[in-house]
Amino acid sequence: MHPSRHRLILLAASTAAAVVVGTVGTVVASAAAVGCRVDYQVTNQWQGGFGANVTVTNLGDPVNGWALTWSYTGGQQVAQAWNATVTQSGAQVTARNVDYNAAIATNGTAAFGFNASWNGSNPAPATFALNGVTCTGAPPTGEPTTPPPTTPPPTTPPPAGACTATYQITGQWSGGFQADVKVTAGGSPTRGWSVSWNYNNGQQVTSSWNATISTNGTQVTARNVSHNGTLAAGASTTFGFLGSWNGSNPVPLVSCTTTS
């Protein structure tokens, strides 16, 4: 994971699959006794490298132990991963569960992330297979699907004025981590924003994307860049960064201020 970004998320009666290509690809598929859906998201990309998150949704019977496979067509190579053991042989990549996420209940999910290199282009994989069954995004044949609610659930209106920020650690490995921060405008448009927090356990930001980040002692301040400072009321934008840690890496409290 590195930036200019620019984190580190990952389904068979037919083999048809739909992929939204770009920074986000979603592949879906159906099977005989297995059904699954994969959401593959490039969370950040920089020259020669990228970070991705993969979320697997089990639409069939519960599984205990899983392997997700896909192939790269652009010469991409996985360098490191978290929440899964990822190996690569040529173009084919295999991600296997780790001890704590081997079981996936029906309609349950498992998520993992990784950093990888690319050269020339970085297309999303066209298909995925879970335990050897192509994922199409539909439950096994003959199983009913849950109908969507007739009335959408109510949403919480954004706060008036100011802004809010949500800090999420999207990947962590020995000595390092990746985090995303989502900034949401309140009831008024903004022309700029800044988000601040304190690291009390020695964490250090090493690189960032979609924000300019500065550090003064334990305090970290992230400010918008030219393309994401203007937000309509209730609109959101996200920035991310890589950091180092030693000992513990709790999520800090964050505060957000705006320029109206």
From TrEMBL:
It comes from Micromonospora orduensis. Residues 141-160 have a biased composition (Pro residues). Gene3D superfamilies: 2.60.40.290. SMART domains: CBD_II. This is CBM2 domain-containing protein. Residues 135-161 are annotated as: Disordered. Residues 29-138, 156-259 form the CBM2 domain. GO terms for molecular function: hydrolase activity, hydrolyzing O-glycosyl compounds; polysaccharide binding. GO terms for biological process: carbohydrate metabolic process.
